[in-house]
Each structure stands twice: as structure tokens, then as C-alpha cells.
Amino acid sequence: MNTSFLDEALEGYVCNTHKDYQTIGWTERLYLHVPPESISNFQKWPQKPENFRRVLLEYTEKLRVLNEIILKAMAKSLNLDENCFLHQFGGNQRLLSTFNFYPPCPWPDVLDANKPHSDPSGITFILQDDEVEGLQVLKKNQWHTTPLAPDAIVVNVGDQVEIMSNGIFKSPIHRVPTNNKRERISLAFFFCPEPSFGEIKPAEGLIDEKNPRLYKNVIDYLRHFRENIQHGITRPLDALKI
Ligand SMILES: O=C(O)CCC(=O)C(=O)O
Ligand SMILES: [Fe+2]
């Protein structure tokens, strides 16, 4: 995975379709930070189609609401205060949207379109291609392909919610293999706690004598993630396990 993933400086178009130099996988990507506007760099946003900015802002506003509903429901399902997870996101949560274009790849046996990883976000929303499947999730050492479901949103738990839920909600390893015939498009929206807001930690209400704390507290998980990836650690979440 790209070492600068979720870096605040990362914005704009990245092409990664080089046979001998692979970071994230065989993909071309557009990364855009969605407000707070202090971070959004609208100059890097496509100027055409003209309604692009309005549609993305409206769409992500709806996702923000959905993110809150889901985080509250997840907390309530564990008999926690409904704001328990949401509080850890701070008032200035981050939202990175990525537009993935996976062109056909002449080396499908050698390269992945998106290498195996777990998301460093809190919650990720994925809009998959209508016609070409590709997203696979690892469960019990087997890859399972996510079925096509046009108009459905795939909701993926990220590393930070795995920590907050003390491992009850798992941040799955997933990947996209390459396809040598068909191109594929997906959109992924990463909701992340505000990096400087406070520590990310397991909810107190989930820890007792029978259920010990499984993760260390961490300040700025995204930085932890980047630093670990830079040192060749493929699953930065594991470094926080007690
Ligand atoms: O293309 C997909 O379906 C998944 C994308 C993904 O996992 C990511 O961007 O982190
Ligand atoms: Fe992902």
C-alpha cells in the first residue's frame, strides 16, 4: 500500500501502472480530501463535469450522516453509549475520497490491482463497479469475492474502529486481483478520526476482568500507519496489539 496513504498532503492523480514498481497495485487513482475546507484543495479537483464538485459535496454530506448512524448503531449494539465511538472522531473528522480506475493488466498472475491491506480509516464506504467484480475479503485464510450489487454501498470497518471496539468489529484484510480483460472502477470514501483530537483507544465499557484490553492507545493512527508501512510492516494494526 502507498506509504503516503491518507497523508494530508496527498491529493490529486496518482498513476501506479508500472510492472516493475508497485506500491498500491495496478491502478490509477484520484485522491480528493473533502472538507473541512482548510484541507480541501479545490484546485486539484476536476473542473469538468461542471457539477462534479457540487455532486461530490452533496454525496459525501449524505455519507457523513450515514457514518454517524452506523457508528451509533454499532455502539448501541454493544450496549455502549451511542456516541462512544463517534466521540473519538472529534469535531473535525477527515474524509478522503479515492476514485480507483483499474485498467486491464497484462500480468494478472503476478500483480494485484489493489494489494492485500486493511483500511487505516475508521469506516470506509465503497461503491463498486456495476459490472466487474473484484473486491475480495480474507476470511479464515480464504479469499471471498464481494458480490456485484449495483447501487449498494459496501461498508468496511477500518483499523481505528477495530481498536475502539477492542477487536469486536474486525478490520478485514481485502484486495483486488488484476483482470486482464476488463477495466474496473470503484470509489472508496475513508472516514477517519481527526488526527490531533485525542487518543484512539478501546471503549472503557468493553473492558473488564473477563475481557482484557487488546490494543494500546494511539495518538494519530494515520501517522502510526504510515510510519509502520515505511518500515516494511504490512499490518500496522498488529503493532498495537497487547
Ligand atoms: O476497489 C475496491 O473495490 C476496493 C478499494 C480499496 O480497498 C481501497 O481503496 O482501500
Ligand atoms: Fe481498502
Can you describe this structure?
There is one protein chain. With 242 residues, the chain is an alpha+beta fold. Among the domains are: 8-48 and 73-106 and 135-157 and 177-183, no CATH class; 198-242, no CATH class. Helices cover 19% and strands 25% of the residues. It has four helices and twelve strands; from the N terminus they run ββααββββββαββββα. The protein has helices at 52-77, 84-87, 159-164, 221-230, and strands at residues 12-15, 28-34, 94-102, 112-117, 123-127, 136-139, 142-145, 153-157, 174-177, 184-192, 199-200, 218-219. The strands form three sheets. A six-stranded antiparallel β-sheet has the order 1-2-3-10-5-8. A four-stranded antiparallel β-sheet has the order 4-9-6-7, with no helix packed on it. The model has no long low-confidence stretch (mean pLDDT 90). Fe (ii) ion binds at residues 117, 119, 174.
How can the largest sheet be summarized? 6 strands, antiparallel
Q: Write the H/E string, N to C.
A: EEHHEEEEEEHEEEEH
Ions, cofactors and other ligands present here are: 2-oxoglutaric acid, fe (ii) ion
How many H/I helical runs? 4
What's the β-strand tally?
Answer: 12
Mean pLDDT: 90
Work out the radius of gyration: 18 Å
- Percent of residues in helices comes to 10-25%
Range of strand content: 25-35%
What are the low-pLDDT stretches, counting only 5+ consecutive residues below 50? none
What class do helices, strands and sheet pairing give? Answer: alpha+beta
Q: Strand order of the main beta sheet, please? A: 1-2-3-10-5-8
Distance between the termini: 24 Å
Shape: globular
